[in-house]
Write a structure and sequence with these properties.
Distance between the termini: 40 Å
Strand content: 15-25%
Helix content: 25-40%
Radius of gyration: 23 Å
Oligomer: single chain
Structural class: alpha+beta
Number of strands: 16
Mean pLDDT: 92
Shape: globular
Length: 455
């Protein structure tokens, strides 16, 4: 079959023709995979994903807990299960525990956390060591810049996706979407692609909410299929020094206000539970910034960070967070955005990577819109820093962000470019990338990703 990339390369199509060819090629691909698509079942796919997230036995989890609580009983474990502090579920008639259920217990339950700290000592995340210097510098220098930017960091990144040998039959075309830094973000400048493993590739336009580099390559028997990209850009920290008196009344009839204070498919839903909490936190406060701070402070003080299972296995992430009283960066971000929208504050999702030295990782955060100021960054997961020495540092991550970011996404759960035929491995976020072939999606256990900073 003649592929889209081969046609594009051979004919030297201009952008308009390229777009038409994309549609034609995707139609050919759809026809070629019709039989596979007809046999696809989300229920079977979800079952497969859950089995990989819930891979621990009762004995595994109990053995870990006994490192810190030697006399732990099954009754105690059942109590933690009831509160959601010890995550488990029954699959195929067997009780199975989330892969990180045991470590999470010592993050979620306050008494368990104290026992672990008594044995192992207290722990500070690596990014905090970096930010306790970076954040004060941004606060000092951002006010001198008209765009509220400061402390630029030049970053050069090599990103690689490696599909396992024989995960795809020899000769079949593997389709891959790699994350790529956005070029439409003020605090992310000078984005330049330096190298790509495939000479034929497609860059997503700025209009796409998920920024990607798309490539294709045929599988070879007994060999891994490797896709890579190398790029550079300059990342700026940002701080808006928000003050309640600077915030003006919203134009509640504007398109922006209506869009970003409304519900958003399955993960920003105004459930009765969410409405009650938003009303409680809002109280009689009329100033949008002070409302946002109340929400920010409540989540920071009541929802501890914990490692999360794959987002695609959760029906409504903010509700899941409230029910279980814990969440990772994307989960608490979606909760924060939902509560803000319910409180009349426009809010949207943003994500990609945190690239603090020796603390590089996937990461999610968001943005709020304040009339008279504009869109400002908010990192709910970073919350109120443990190193904060004054009010500016205390509320820095509500209206500011550090210098070590790579913005890939300006929304969640949106279409990829070109379109993906099968459901994504990550149906909410787009960070690690996505891979598929004519026979179906390739899940995370069939390939690996690697991000490295290069000189």
């Amino acid at each position: 079959m003649i592929t889209l990339l081969h046609l594009t390369h051979r004919l030297g199509l201009r952008l308009a023709n390229c777009r038409r060819q994309i549609a034609s090629s995707l139609l050919l691909l759809a026809c070629a995979t019709m039989a596979s698509a007809q046999n696809y079942s989300w229920e079977a796919d979800l079952h497969y994903r859950l089995l990989r997230d819930f891979g621990r036995s009762h004995a595994d989890v109990k053995a870990y807990i006994q490192r810190y609580i030697p006399q732990v009983t099954d009754v105690q474990m059942a109590q933690w299960e009831q509160t959601g502090a010890l995550e488990c579920r029954t699959i195929d008639g067997e009780k199975r525990y989330f892969n990180n259920a045991a470590p999470n217990l010592f993050r979620i339950d306050a008494q368990c956390r104290k026992k672990k700290e008594a044995k192992d000592g207290s722990y500070r995340e690596g990014y905090e060591e970096v930010d306790k210097e970076n954040v004060p510098a941004i606060i000092r220098n951002a006010p001198t810049d008209a765009r509220h930017l400061a402390e630029p960091k030049h970053l050069k990144i090599r990103y690689t996706i490696t599909v396992k040998a024989d995960a795809v039959p020899a000769g079949e075309m593997v389709r891959c979407w790699l994350p790529f830094p956005r070029t439409d973000i003020d605090r992310q400048q000078g984005v330049k692609l330096l190298a790509a493993s495939q000479t034929d590739y497609l860059r997503s336009p700025d209009s796409c909410h998920h920024s990607s580099l798309y490539m294709e390559r045929r599988a070879v028997a007994g060999e891994p299929t490797v896709f890579s990209e190398t790029f550079e850009y300059t990342s700026y920290g940002s701080w808006f020094n928000l003050r309640p008196g600077d915030i003006k009344s919203y134009d509640t009839h504007s398109a922006l206000y209506k869009e970003y204070t409304s519900e958003r498919d399955v993960h920003i839903i105004f459930t009765p539970h969410m409405r009650r909490l938003a009303a409680y936190l809002k109280g009689i406060e009329r100033n949008p910034l002070l409302r946002a701070r109340k929400i920010f402070g409540w989540i920071d003080g009541n929802i501890p960070w914990a490692s999360a299972r794959e987002y695609s296995t959760i029906d409504n992430i903010p509700e899941y967070v409230l029910q279980n009283r814990h969440g990772d960066c994307g989960q608490v971000t979606l909760l924060f955005l939902t509560l803000c929208r319910l409180s009349g504050i426009p809010a949207r999702f943003q994500s990609g990577f945190m690239l603090h030295p020796d603390a590089e990782n996937l990461h999610d955060w968001g943005e709020l819109y304040f009339e008279g100021v504009g869109w400002v960054p908010v990192d709910m997961s970073f919350g109120i820093p443990s190193y904060a020495r004054n009010e500016a540092e205390r509320w820095f991550f509500l209206g500011g962000i550090d210098s070590w970011r790579m913005v890939v996404n300006s929304d969640f759960g949106m279409p990829l470019y070109p379109a993906k035929r099968f459901p994504r491995s990550e149906t909410v976020d787009f960070q690690r990338g996505e891979v598929e072939w004519a026979g179906g999606n390739l899940y995370f256990d069939q390939w690996s990703w690697n991000l490295e900073k290069v000189e």
